[in-house]
Amino acid sequence: MNTEAGEPIVPKTPAPHPRRAVIAALVVLALLVVALAWHLVAQTAYDSSAATGRTADRLASAQLAAKMEPWNERFGWRVVGLQALTLLDAGKVRPSYFLMEKWMPIVFGRDATFIAIYKQVRAAEWTIDSGQPHVAHGLDPYNRFSPPGTPSATYTTGPQTP
């Protein structure tokens, strides 16, 4: 404050703190690194769920990826596919098929591993399902497979006596 020389009194503004800007930039950079590492761990778990190996291990990897990134729908699809494969491995073909069937229109053409699992499940379900309409059709009492006046055939597995 030099008023003797005739200079006006000007209040000093505080100098900007370059340390604050550096600290803010470092915090943002650290958050980006953590987010990238988080995503890489989730992506690695997702990728390992597509690899060959035990279904339980693959399912655990897919579930980890889905927990880490619940907004990523591909991770959820993989969990559904591997849950269906687990059911199929346990001999529960129908529950496995019905679990995958409701997701198939959504996932079709978007996840190769899901489609491969679906094909396995569908092949197993096809062996169960393919004969049922024929059996049901044959057991229908209103179906008449022989013309009137012609006795229906009787099939036996033992020796036939005339």
Write the topology of this structure.
Elements: H1 18-48, H2 55-68, H3 73-89, H4 93-101, H5 104-107, H6 112-129, H7 132-139
Helix pairs in contact: 1-2, 2-3, 3-4, 3-6, 4-6
Short note summarizing the structure:
The chain is mainly alpha-helical.
Roughly what percent helix?
55-70%
The succession of helices and strands, N to C, reads: HHHHHHH
User: What is the domain tally?
Assistant: 1
Strand segment tally: 0
Strand content: under 5%
Q: Please mark out the parts with pLDDT under 50 across 5 or more consecutive residues, or reply none.
A: none
Helix-strand makeup class:
mainly alpha
Quote the average pLDDT: 82
**Total DSSP helices:** 7
User: How widely separated are the two ends?
Assistant: 135 Å
Shape: rod-shaped
Structure description:
The longest helix has 31 residues, at 18-48. This protein has helices spanning 18-48, 55-68, 73-89, 93-101, 104-107, 112-129, 132-139. Helix 1 (18-48) runs antiparallel to helix 2. By secondary structure, the protein is mostly helical. Helices cover 62% and strands 0% of the residues. The protein is built from seven helices and no strands.
Question: Which key phrases capture this entry?
Answer:
single chain; 162 residues; 7 helices
